[in-house]
């Protein structure tokens, strides 16, 4: 089964990149095929709300979104990480999420991400710098794609994985990242979503 990890940070080697790749490494050790996409440097144009994609299921704008949509559709599990920006997801990630409107149902087509397993990772500078609200931004997106949204699972089973400060130094935060990945592995092994 395939896992896609997306870092929503504009920094290619920052905390979110580290945390998402830490989760992917854990899933690789569990036997999953992994793919990593960083939004850093990606050309993703904002949704213009034209609704042309309701008919065409693709966007008229030429940029890097098609490879991201294709990778999402090929994934059984999707991990999305973001830095907390004012307690919310980064603008880069929100722009990517809005462009996923091409996967919303219309004209009787089902939601392509239905039943896939999704989890969220948030990185902030402060211990309570808005990680949980950032997780909820991501989880709301996953819910609206009709995915199965998971917590970080045992032993804490909170809202997802959270990093405070420098990811590499945050051993407790990295434990939540690992637990999220292991919970995703357990969920996928119990219930293999059909692509
Ligand atoms: C525009 C902006 C807004 C930020 N807002 C917050 C915030 O609300 N709370 C917080 O603790 N840190 C905030 N930070 C700090 C980042 O969340 C933090 O440095 C994070 O680890 C960066 O992740 P990255 O290295 O993956 O980019 C902000 C940083 C930027 C650039």
What does this structure look like?
With 195 residues, the protein is an alpha/beta fold. The protein has a single domain (2-189), classed as Rossmann fold, CATH 3.40.50.360. The protein has six helices and six strands, in the order E-H-E-H-H-E-H-E-H-E-E-H. The chain has helices at 15-29, 53-56, 65-73, 91-99, 131-144, 171-190; strands at 2-7, 33-38, 77-83, 117-124, 148-149, 161-164. Strands 1, 2, 3, 4, 5 and 6 form a six-stranded parallel sheet that branches. Helix 1 crosses helix 6. The protein is globular and about 45 Å long. The chain starts with a strand and ends in a 5-residue tail after the last helix. The model has no long low-confidence stretch (mean pLDDT 96). Flavin mononucleotide binds next to helix 1 and strand 4.
Provide a quick synopsis of the model.
With 195 residues, the protein is α/β, with parallel strands linked by helices.
**What's the oligomerization state?**
single chain
Here the CATH topology equals Rossmann fold
Distinct small molecules bound, one entry per kind = flavin mononucleotide
Task: Name the helix and strand elements from N-terminus to C-terminus, one letter apiece.
Answer: EHEHHEHEHEEH
Terminus-to-terminus distance: 10 Å
Helix content: 25-40%
Count of domains:
1
E-strand count: 6
CATH 4th-level superfamily: Flavodoxin domain
User: What would the average pLDDT be, to the nearest integer?
Assistant: 96
Which shape, going by the Cα principal axes? globular
Q: Structural class from helices and strands?
A: alpha/beta
Largest sheet: 6 strands, parallel
Poorly predicted residue ranges? none
* Rg, Å, rounded: 16 Å
User: Number of helical runs?
Assistant: 6
CATH class: Alpha Beta
């Amino acid at each position: 089964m395939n896992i896609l990890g997306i870092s929503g940070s504009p920094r290619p080697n920052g905390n979110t990149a580290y945390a998402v790749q830490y989760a992917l490494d854990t899933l690789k050790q569990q036997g999953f095929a992994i793919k990593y996409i960083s939004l850093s440097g990606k050309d993703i144009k904002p949704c213009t709300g034209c609704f042309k994609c309701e008919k065409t299921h693709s966007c008229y704008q030429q940029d890097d979104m098609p490879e991201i949509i294709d990778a999402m559709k090929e994934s059984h599990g999707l991990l999305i990480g973001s830095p907390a920006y004012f307690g919310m997801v980064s603008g880069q990630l929100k722009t990517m999420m809005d462009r996923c409107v091409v996967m919303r149902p219309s004209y009787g087509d089902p939601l392509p991400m239905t039943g896939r397993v999704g989890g969220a990772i948030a990185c902030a500078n402060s211990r309570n710098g808005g990680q949980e609200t950032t997780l909820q931004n991501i989880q709301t997106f996953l819910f609206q794609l009709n995915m199965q949204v998971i917590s970080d699972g045992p032993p804490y089973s909170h809202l997802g994985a959270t990093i405070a400060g420098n990811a590499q130094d945050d051993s407790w935060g990295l434990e939540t990242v690992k637990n999220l990945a292991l919970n995703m592995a357990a969920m996928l092994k119990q219930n293999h979503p059909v692509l």
